[in-house]
């Protein structure tokens, strides 16, 4: 794909002996919102740091907006906006001055920067806070300011690393709006998130990573249909004592009948056509506290692919 | 790799300006120490202790320590900035990380750190020179030659760079901010006393003299002393050579080692 926003071929990243991104190939076309999902430590932030050409790649080839991350790193960073996972606003400056200082790194003159800053502050509804110190902002305000900062250079590609983690619903929606407005201008968005509903709502296409590899990639709706089907059911029980034995029984039965499932602490989630057969077998089981039938979601895809063990 | 580590003067300036902006925002508290400190030293050591000392190295004690505190402040100005302050920006405030997502490169950031630390050396030298000249005017005893006073901010550039480079080397290694106390305790503070700053090297046993001649502050103090006394700079060849070589080696190593730490 010649005109893709991001093109990775056999991309590998090692930190010393440890392989954080393992032979990843990925084509992200322009004009879409692409989601990168995966458990903690999957390699999402590492991918982003390579894409912003600040972390050198170990192997393979990586092109961003048609430019090579090795030879054109400055040019790439000029044209992208990055909203990092960690808050790195400058606590030494006010809200407005944070934007002005950042604009300077893009070679934007002061007058133009001032104009842009006002415009962006208005966009993220921080005009009232323009002269506040960073430490006086709430987490959600900081996040919105970082989003504004990432757009100071009018980027063609916006990269957001967990932009809504820790935000209240209003602030989340505000960030989503910014992403939608940005995308509607025909520009490209790359987003990581741990919220499956967010990915399902925002992303035209997504990839699920684990341990440095891409497990699956595609349109969220199609992925759900393809890997899980339309429906899911949850059999809920406490995960210790007699209840755990019940869950073990269900698990055994699923394996026997080749029904796909995920086991998550206190419940087993069933997928596929055989759901009702399993349910009918266990519906009178006293140790099950609840049986929930529902539509299959992206979270099911995620759990089913990445398993239930906790990551660190 | 070439481009990742390239240096762009425009970007270096942008990063330097960020540090300067922070300094300007709090200029009142930043001006005070380099203006007040020399007055305290000159009063306490120069005139106080000096009252019991006829002369030191051929001049009055207060004249002896005036160039010393200048050299010391050039050292601290750069060294502190390239260690504690740089580490705060790197580790706690994530300023370097934020800049890494802009067209500025990691090398730009580190070169800007060196230049900013050197700027602190130069401003310290300028403010202190002014303070020392004023004290000299009040007590009617010129403590620094006029020609020396004009040259102080200029020699603060290589001296500041040398200490900034050494600071970055430590910053590339330090596991935590408290760790800086160790080199400060083992290296900087002894040097403070032993570099011919508060008494002449000639009073030392020969072994100690040779050790002292290896210390960077010794040469910084020789330079400021020669300028302050208005002596000919032809005597400075050895010290200037020492400072030049150290500056090149230390700044190069400082940037290289820090790059290894931050570009992973
Ligand atoms: N600078 C580094 N040096 C060594 N290892 C690193 C470094 N950065 C990341 N890693 C390791 O690489 C792996 C991937 O980390 P990364 O930050 O990319 O994960 P992530 O998918 O963003 O996770 P999270 O959802 O928790 O943010 C982790 O095992 C991490 O410990
Ligand atoms: Mg991450």
UniProtKB/TrEMBL annotation, chain A:
Q: Which GO terms describe its cellular component?
A: plasma membrane
Q: Where is the ABC transporter domain?
A: 6-236
Superkingdom of the organism of origin: Archaea
- Subcellular localization, per the record? Cell membrane
Single GO term (MF): ATP hydrolysis activity
Which Gene3D superfamilies does the record cross-reference, listed alphabetically?
Answer: P-loop containing nucleotide triphosphate hydrolases (3.40.50.300)
Tell me the leader sequence span. Answer: none
- SMART domains in the record, alphabetically? AAA (SM00382)
Asked if the keyword Transferase belongs to this entry, the reply reads no
Keywords carried by this UniProt record: ATP-binding, Cell membrane, Membrane, Nucleotide-binding, Translocase, Transport
Tell me the protein family, please. Answer: Belongs to the ABC transporter superfamily.
- What is the protein's name according to its record? ABC transporter domain-containing protein
Which species is listed as the source?
Answer: Marine Group III euryarchaeote CG-Epi1
From TrEMBL, chain B:
Please list the GO terms describing molecular function.
ABC-type transporter activity
Q: Where is the ABC transmembrane type-2 domain?
A: 29-261
Pfam families, sorted: ABC2_membrane
Q: How does it sit in the membrane?
A: Multi-pass membrane protein
Q: What is this protein called?
A: ABC transmembrane type-2 domain-containing protein
UniProt keywords (A-Z) are: Membrane, Transmembrane, Transmembrane helix
Subcellular location(s): the record lists:
Membrane
Q: Which first-to-last residue range defines the signal peptide? A: none
Q: Its GO CC terms?
A: ATP-binding cassette (ABC) transporter complex
Q: Could you list the residue ranges that cross the membrane?
A: 35-53, 65-84, 122-139, 151-173, 179-199, 236-255
